[in-house]
TrEMBL record:
GO biological process: export across plasma membrane; xenobiotic transport
Keyword Transmembrane helix: yes
Organism: Xylaria flabelliformis
Signal peptide: none
One cellular component term from this protein's GO annotations in UniProt: plasma membrane
Protein name: Major facilitator superfamily (MFS) profile domain-containing protein
Gene3D superfamilies recorded: MFS general substrate transporter like domains
């Protein structure tokens, strides 16, 4: 039998299986109806996304609310600013390592117990940070704080994969990205307002006051969504995976469903190396590497903003905090719009290949060019972003009026955020059975690359200046487009 004949037979068998699995028989008419991807109602899905996005919000907020306080903490503790900056590096390193330890547990044991445990650590760390008075405790508790909250990012995107089909996943990923990208603009403002009335400790008391609210919402309302634990939502999980209140829980759960599940009987030890094992897949490595490169550029843009504007334009501390607003607002706008663009691109790609575009139907992505659907608009966004970053550096180099680099910051935010929304969605698409683990792999690589980039940032700025520094960043970022082309060609090769 020829290879083409085998392939056609395989595709026909796969299509028939998909049709069988994706349909149920109507008892009255005898006709096949599409099987819903999830038994959670639309209202329940939105409520669940709101809760997990709120939890993920603290991961970004904990960084951006801290930046303006660094010189004040240094003065109060009697250490140098450079030494306090080590706590930023330690936070980034920890935020890359700890999600790798908990992500597989979130996929296999469930999102709910993992999120409850990590939020408890986070609340305790915030209280400790507000009370401590030594650099050693500050350093240690920042690591604990990062360990507690950094995993929420992977859990949040894992829940998106649990609840939504590929056809609607982009839009909800955009909503999540919108929430996760408000801290760059609101974090420094909250920090400035708190410190104008109280000391830097008020920042951690603020986090200590609002993070328990998120914990209470999770304990009371968040149902289990992991598809390895509750399937489409109809399986009844163990008690620890059940919400105390059932407002967001499907009514169709069957009490006998989980009794034979292996996850319900065995003691489970997460494998911290499993996220790295996913990088053996070429397309996963390309996606994760690209996220890491652009997140490093993103971090360097934000970390240098206050110091460069203070040095070049001699702005005050309050104005320095306000300079974060254009970039943060643009990222939030871009997250929502890119989510909609991803859904449109998915439908157009499906229509081009004559595939089903129903949002409620779970599509078999093994025979679908998902990389083409997610990356088709991204390459244009990256090209624009690279040019803007290079231009931004030279505006600072020649000390053009402060309004010009702030305008460039806004448009950089619009274009760079699309990278994270599109690639995070694509990671979920190609790792649906281990979406939190895939996000943890991405988080590990991006955090460690960003930590390295930030460690070298001041040295590079001193050696070659702002103009050439940001040209270098732009060139490195644009090289990722070649990686996307390779990912696309690899998909064509595997499917052909």
């Amino acid at each position: 039998m020829s290879r083409d004949h085998e392939q056609n037979a395989s595709q026909q068998e796969s299509k028939a299986t998909d049709q069988k699995n994706d349909s149920i028989e109507d008892e009255q008419t005898g006709t096949n109806l599409p099987t819903p991807y999830s038994t959670f109602s639309s209202r329940q899905k939105k409520g669940i996304v709101a809760i997990v996005a709120f939890a993920g919000w603290f991961s970004s907020l904990s960084s951006f609310i801290y930046f303006p306080a660094i010189p004040f903490i240094a003065t109060d503790l009697g250490v140098s600013v450079e030494k306090i900056n080590l706590t930023v590096t330690a936070y980034l390193i920890a935020s890359g390592i700890f999600p790798s330890l908990i992500s597989e547990a979130a996929d296999n044991l469930g999102r709910r117990p993992v999120l409850i445990a990590t939020l408890c650590f986070y609340v305790a760390a915030n209280i400790g940070l507000a009370l401590q008075s030594s650099f050693g405790l500050l350093f240690f508790l920042r690591i604990v704080q990062s360990a507690g909250i950094s995993g929420s990012y992977a859990v949040t995107y894992g829940v998106v994969g649990d609840l939504f089909t590929p056809a609607e996943r982009g839009g909800y990923s955009g909503v999540v990205s919108f929430v996760l990208n408000t801290p760059p603009s609101v974090g420094p403002i909250i920090s400035g307002l708190l410190m104008s009335r109280w000391s830097w400790r008020a920042i951690f008391w603020f986090l200590s006051a609002i993070s328990p609210l998120c914990l209470v919402l999770v304990v009371l309302l968040l149902p289990e969504t992991s598809r390895q634990v509750v399937g489409d939502g109809a399986l009844l999980p163990r008690r620890v995976n059940r919400a105390l209140l059932h407002a967001l829980t499907p009514k169709q759960q069957r009490k006998e469903s989980l009794l034979s599940s292996p996850n319900a009987k065995r003691l489970y030890f997460p494998n911290p190396l499993k996220p790295l094992a996913l990088l053996r897949r070429p397309n996963t490595a390309i996606i994760v590497g690209s996220v890491g490169v652009w997140y490093t550029i993103y971090s360097c843009l934000q970390a240098s903003l206050s110091s460069l504007f203070t040095q070049i334009y001699h702005v005050s501390g309050l104005v320095s905090g306000l300079t974060y607003i254009p970039f943060g607002v643009a990222c939030a706008i871009s997250a929502l719009s890119m989510g909609k663009i991803l859904d449109v691109d998915y439908r157009r790609t499906a229509a081009r290949y004559g595939l089903n575009t129903e949002k409620a139907k779970n599509h078999n992505l093994n025979n679908f060019p998902i990389e083409e659907a997610r990356l088709r608009s991204l390459k244009y966004s990256l090209l624009v972003c690279g040019l803007l970053i290079a231009g931004y550096g030279w505006l600072l180099r020649y000390q053009v009026n402060i309004a010009a680099p702030l305008v460039f910051q806004f448009f950089i935010g619009l274009s760079i955020q699309g990278v994270f929304t599109a690639l995070s969605t694509l990671l979920v698409d190609i790792h649906l059975d281990a979406s939190s683990t895939a996000q943890a792999a991405s988080n590990l690589i991006r955090a460690e690359l960003a930590a390295g980039g930030l460690a070298l940032l001041d040295l590079i700025l001193r050696r070659i200046g702002a103009g050439w520094t940001f040209v270098l960043f732009a060139v490195i970022g644009l090289l990722s487009i070649l990686g996307f082309v390779l990912a696309w060609l690899n998909r064509i090769y595997l499917s052909g």
